[in-house]
Amino acid sequence: MIAVIAILIFTGYLCFFFPLEAKEKKEEEKSVKYSPQMKKLWQVAQTSMKERKPFRAEKALLTILKFDEKNAAAYNRLGILYAKGQKYDEAVECFEIAQSLDNNPASIHNAGLIYLETGAYEKAAMAFRQAIALEGDVPSRHIALAKAEEKMGNTKKAIEALESSFELDPKVSTLRQILAIYEDNGDTEAATATAARIEEQITRDNAAKKRGISKTIEKRPLSSARANIKSAKRAQRTGSNVTTKNVQQKGVAVHKTVPALKTKQNRRTIKSHIGRKRI
């Protein structure tokens, strides 16, 4: 009997009190995360990083993590700060913690860049592949993977990664990287074909630039004409008479004087005129 009562009390605690405690804990974490003090610390950290004051930025980020130890963004920023200071072990640790808290492809990609910088090419390639699996539409991830594959001597995989980057963002610089790999490996035929692709892409880019300039020139008179029409209509609504002379000065051809239709008296007068004409 006592055991049954104990089970019922425990069940009641799980149903009513435990969810309330969890909710209160979440609200407390949220309030800490978005408190004015935390916002100020973020501002200090960002400003210090821009002004190249690493010690001040590090202190601000560590203080944020003291209050909010599950802040993935703070770990990511701290990792970037350590990477700039060539503290690669600390940087990788920060990026790994950030990735464990929030499965963010940026954190994985950043860890891959550190591995690439320190010569851990296999780890770098693995990190870049993970980042691509989560977010495969970013060209820079494929370029980074190509660098890691090339360092390991996997030229075919490096070219495949660069081709993937080119499909997402057709840049001449990407084709030049492919050309450099072919030239280094003595593949003359592929190098010649890639050089031809570079010329074609340059021609396309120049043509696109010219089209962009011509479109801008064409849009200017249209936009000004539309603005003049809008101003004419606005004048009608406000009750002013828009004369032919005034409108022609603005560049819009209107051949009749438009009377204001603001008051009831004006509407009645116009209706009476219409009635007379019908009679």
Structure description:
The chain is mainly alpha-helical and 279 residues long. It contains 13 helices and no strands. The radius of gyration is 34 Å and the shape is extended.
What is the fold's blueprint, element by element?
Elements: H1 2-33, H2 36-50, H3 54-67, H4 72-84, H5 88-101, H6 105-118, H7 121-134, H8 139-151, H9 155-168, H10 172-184, H11 188-238, H12 244-249, H13 264-278
Helix pairs in contact: 2-3, 3-4, 4-5, 5-6, 6-7, 6-8, 7-8, 8-9, 9-10, 10-11
Keywords:
279 residues, mainly alpha, 0% strand, extended, disordered C terminus
Helical proportion, percent range: over 70%
Strand content: under 5%
SSE arrangement, N to C? HHHHHHHHHHHHH
Q: What Rg is obtained from the alpha carbons, in whole angstroms?
A: 34 Å
Offer a concise description of the structure.
This protein has 279 residues and is an all-alpha fold.
